[in-house]
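Structure ticket #2291
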Amino acid sequence: MTTLGHFAKTYRLRARRDRCRESIIPGKLRAKDMPARTEYASHVYDRGGGRFGLLLMFESKRRWGNAKSKLICAGFEIRQDADTEGVALFDPGNVAQARLAFTLARIRPRPELSQEQRRALLSRLANARGLRNGPEKTQVQAKFSTQPEETGQGGRPGLIRWRAPSNPIEVPRSRRFT
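Resolution: structure written out below.
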């Protein structure tokens, strides 16, 4: 019997937990009139008994009807059939059914990285972490001083222009916004 975690690892997918703490593999397909929560998107879940469920949510009856006909032709069992959404059960061991489920729910596998790409990403991550965990204080050029110039822009009276100081100041790390 296949678990959802093993199934996700086999197809390089990302399993998550919804608000009910159940494991699902979420897809990108989402009806616009539904809330932006994980469980309201189309997803694959473990139905039990060695079968997985595919929840599809569409905005129109026509799209659900087209998807339903594809599912029936591929051997899925339709368990819930509403106007614009439905649930279909499939065998996780059947590669064709799994691929069709991913296509309809818009579930994309994670890219497979070569060792060279993996090393490059890890070095970029190490550099970013090194910059973030750098020295406690950093020299930053101040944008504006607190002393205004007496003459305004264009020599017109009444306008005040702020002048940047010539020396950098020390700003503690906790006071920076970046």
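Closing remark: The chain has two domains: 4-105, 138-178.
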